[in-house]
Amino acid sequence: MAILNILAYPEKSLLLPSDKVDDIDDTLKKLIEDMGETMFEAPGVGLAAPQVGVNKRIIVYDSNADSPESDDPESDNSIKEFTALINPEIIEASGKIVSEQEGCLSVIDYNADVKRHDKVLVKALDIDGKEIQFEAQGILAVIMQHEIDHLDGILFIDRISILKRAIYKKKLSKKLKNQ
Ligand code: NI
Question: How far is the CA of 73 from the centre of ligand 1 (A)?
Answer without folding.
Answer: 32
